[in-house]
Amino acid sequence: MHISEGVLSAPVLVTGALLAAGGVAIGLKKMDYEKIPEVAVLSSAFFVASLIHVPIGPSSVHLILNGLLGILLGWMAFPSILVALTLHAVLFQFGGLTSLGVNTVTMATPGVIAYYLFNMPIRKGNNIVSAVSGFAAGVTGVGIGAILVAIALISTGESFLGVAKLIVVAHIPVMVIEGIITAFCVIFLKKVKPEILEVGK
Amino acid sequence: MKKFKIQNSGFKLIPGVVTFLFLLLVSSTVFAHKVSVYAYAEDGKVFAEGYFSDGTRTRNSLIEVFDAKTGKKLLEGKTDNDGKFSFKIPKVTSLKLVLHASMGHRNDYTLDEEEVKEAMGIQESGVRSQESGVKGRKTESKLQSTAPLTANSGVSSSEIEAIVGRTIDRKLQPVITILLKLQENSEKPGITEILGGIGYIIGLMGLVMYFKSRR
């Protein structure tokens, strides 16, 4: 879900950049010293996840993991994702430098939403509640991400409408896969290292 | 502005859904991040190919062709199931091909004027040698200077040109395929880049920790 260079119009790009800057600022403010390695590790995970292609049917799907990042990092998902997306743009020419802001917003915002909705039930609930919440967080991450990408595309011109609708439904398989992966990660982390789920502040 | 657009999109929901269903039927849905387009000119035609970074072809994607100098749109077309699209050269100039794949993916490729000219030159010779029933191929003005020599042996220069051209084309076909493959592979992220990226993240982490610890 990287939007390429030269697709979006200037107002959308600027709005995206401003929103991303705000999110990153909040994220950096919330970042404790102990949390820094975790942010970096998850940034790496996000960076690599986009390269893992899961062959499903006629299309090829890649992991995003923004739901997982959101649950574990909260607002810190913004700087984490920004770093990974910058490297995507520079090293692989995925997305682009001008669309960096928009892409950061479309990927990190769903993570933050997933954090507010599901972090608490994952920490406090029993295993089943945690697993279901983890699954829901994964679905939310991709689903809302797809909707945000669609909005970014729609607001650039009517001709994108069909394509923008397509993107939402086309991501349904990714949502399910992400949900399962996130649920497993959450259960595992809760057993092995429950304090990692505390985002703090 | 966004809000207005969202409401607007709701208003146009029904045509939108129809479009969506149509797109679902005809287009491939690919989630790769980057799309590439590559083109070469031959025989008065341009052959273009589009593919995603994981090697999947861009099926049914719009390709627009522009005059790279004036920016005027010359023509447009859709790629077939192999991500291929070919068209007759509309104008001898530098051509810019813009590929629009689904979901905000876009890339372009510019064909040099030299290459276009060469391809057009071929077509002219093709017309000339059609009288002899042979489809002409690559010609070089150098070859034409040898015409008096070949005339003595009873074979016309255009026939020789055609034969040589066809042979060269046949021999070069695998090479062109290999070049296309290489080009495609070079667009895929390699292990060096992946590890490099992780290295950057670790370095950045160290940097942030360093500055935070000094406070």
Describe this structure as you would to a colleague.
The complex is a heterodimer of chains A (201) and B (215). Chain A has helices at residues 10-30, 36-49, 66-73, 77-92, 100-124, 127-154, 161-170, 172-192, and strands at 53-56, 59-62. Chain A is mainly alpha-helical and 201 residues long. Chain A has one domain (10-195): Arp2/3 complex 21 kDa subunit ARPC3 (Orthogonal Bundle). In chain A, strands 1-2 form a two-stranded antiparallel ribbon. The longest helix of chain A is centred in the last third of the chain and has 28 residues, at 127-154. Chain A is globular. Chain B has 215 residues and is α+β, with helices and mostly antiparallel strands. In chain B, the strands form two sheets. In chain B, strands 4-3-6-7 form a four-stranded antiparallel beta sheet. A three-stranded antiparallel beta sheet of chain B has the order 1-2-5. In chain B, a hairpin with a 5-residue loop joins strand 3 and strand 4. Classes of the chains: A mainly alpha (201), B alpha+beta (215). Chains A and B meet through helix 2, strand 2, helix 4, helix 6 and helix 7 of A and helix 1, helix 2, strand 7 and helix 7 of B.
Summarize the structure.
The complex is a heterodimer of chains A (about 200) and B (about 220). Chain A has helices spanning about 10-30, 35-50, 65-75, 75-90, 100-125, 125-155, 160-170, 170-190, and strands at about 55, 60.
Please describe the structure with a list of short key phrases separated by commas or semicolons.
heterodimer; A: 201 residues; mainly alpha; Arp2/3 complex 21 kDa subunit ARPC3; two-stranded antiparallel ribbon; 8 helices; 71% helix; 4% strand; B: 215 residues; alpha+beta; 4-stranded antiparallel β-sheet; 3-stranded antiparallel β-sheet; 49% helix; 22% strand; disordered N terminus
